[in-house]
Specification:
Blueprint lengths: L8 H7 L16 E2 L12 H15 L11 H15 L9 E4 L1 H13 L6 E5 L3 H8 L5 E7 L2 E2 L1 H13 L7 E4 L13 H14 L2 E5 L14 H4 L5 E6 L11 E4 L2 H11 L5 H12 L3 H26 L5 E2 L7 E5 L5 H11 L1 E2 L1 E2 L13 E5 L5 H19 L2
Parallel strand pairs: 1-12, 3-4, 3-6, 6-7, 7-8
Antiparallel strand pairs: 2-9, 4-5, 8-9, 10-11, 11-14, 13-14
Helix pairs in contact: 2-10, 3-10, 4-5, 4-9, 11-13, 12-13
């Protein structure tokens, strides 16, 4: 039986892409994990989540374990809306859809908007799993580079003008992580945020704002694109993975009610009612704004250690951005293939993510790598950079 013959053409095309998760290489035991984009183990509120679970089941018995689940599922939506309102994003109940993490949210948005003829714009580099999702729906992906101030809106405008002159299809959707971007850690300036909203109006495209790291600002939190949106062009995607626990898989979409209705149509009951109920019970006892402050204090300490270690240990010519929040720092090692270097680095005792996986055209990322300061301890971060710097120096001096 030729099983591939049963697949529709769109699935065959998707299966021809690089397999999902290719960027996740095995890490030897004892290796310092500067590749892990996870919250620090000691900052995951496991005790509080256990208490919330116990309280939920004591109060509601078997109710949260049924298909319909707990009344706290609706309460969770209310809690998320209240937090958005605190962050100056005014949304109503029918404008929010809770999802199984941010990836399901991104996939649902792609599902209702994209087909093989649609064009989408993404940052370059960008979040690799979002890139994998978009490639499942269309090959028409336009990339716009990032600099220290985020997405280059001048280049974006130039491409839009050129495509209009040539009567080429314009993008339907632009995907961006404007705040503490993955993988670069950069933040879109306020002037560029305003420009992006203006271009969306002028050239009639929608914006998918991925705000996974928006609660982790070391200083003042940047203004979200959603709060600047006056025409309901922004699909805002939020997540509790970075500020509570990624295994709970709690994300959400905030958008116009008509978009939410379409998204719900395809989401159906593909969610985790028990996890949502537990999260709501947890949030009854926790102030997210206060928790955000706690986390950012801890992560900023680690980010400073990473930054100072790079200055102290890295050889001349290596470049990086200093983030103002989030989890990551983006390193350029000119003339070095970071994918080929990874095996040597892991053997020496440190792991990172090669830059190629964050680019549509992977050759563009050969000399880059992503480091995370969220998961490893302060001591591990300093030691890891010392090890990595020796490996980098050896590669540069070959």
């Amino acid at each position: 039986m030729k099983r591939e013959a049963y697949f529709p053409e769109v699935v065959k095309q998707a299966l021809s892409n690089i397999p999902p998760g290719s960027w996740m290489s095995a890490v030897p035991e004892g290796c310092i994990r500067l590749n892990s984009g996870y919250p620090a183990a000691n900052l995951v509120p496991s005790t509080e989540l256990k208490e919330a679970t116990d309280r939920l089941l004591t109060e509601e018995q078997d109710l949260p374990l049924h298909y319909i689940g707990s009344p706290r599922i609706d309460q969770l939506k209310t809690q998320l809306i209240e937090r958005m309102n605190e962050r100056k994003m005014e949304v109503q109940e029918d404008e929010v859809l809770v999802t199984s993490g941010a990836c399901q949210a991104i996939d649902l948005i792609a599902r209702i908007l994209l087909d093989e003829n649609a064009f989408i714009i993404v940052e370059s580099p960008t979040y690799m799993e979002a890139l994998e999702i978009f490639q499942n729906y269309t090959k028409n992906i336009i990339t716009i580079p990032i600099d220290a101030d985020g997405l280059d809106t001048k280049q974006l405008e130039g491409i839009l003008i050129e495509r209009t002159k040539k009567e080429e299809p314009l993008p339907k959707l632009l995907y961006t992580i404007p705040t503490f971007q993955n993988p670069t850690g950069t933040t879109l300036s306020f002037a560029r945020r305003e420009k992006l909203i203006k271009l969306a109006k002028e050239y009639d495209f929608l914006i998918l704002e991925d705000d996974a790291y928006g609660e982790l600002a070391f200083g003042e939190s940047p203004t979200t694109l959603k709060s600047l949106d006056e025409e309901d062009r922004v699909f805002y995607v939020g997540s509790l993975s970075k500020i509570v626990a990624p295994g709970m898989r709690i994300g959400w979409i905030a958008a116009h009610s008509e978009w939410i209705e379409a998204l719900f149509w395809f989401k159906k009951d593909l969610e985790h009612p028990f996890a949502q109920s537990v999260m709501s019970a947890y949030l009854e006892k926790v102030n997210l704004a206060h928790r955000s402050v706690l986390l950012t204090e801890k992560y900023e300490e680690k980010a400073v250690i990473l930054y100072e270690a790079l200055i102290h240990f890295m050889p001349e010519g290596v470049k990086w951005y200093r983030p103002e929040g989030g989890y990551f720092m983006w390193i350029e090692v000119p003339g070095v293939d970071t994918t080929a270097m990874l095996a040597k680095a892991k053997k020496a005792g440190v792991a990172y993510v090669p830059g190629q996986y964050f680019f549509l055209h992977q050759d563009e990322g050969k000399s880059f790598l992503r480091l995370s300061f969220s998961y490893a301890s302060k001591e591990e971060i300093k030691k890891g950079i010392e090890i990595l710097s020796h490996v980098v120096a050896e590669e540069i001096n070959k």
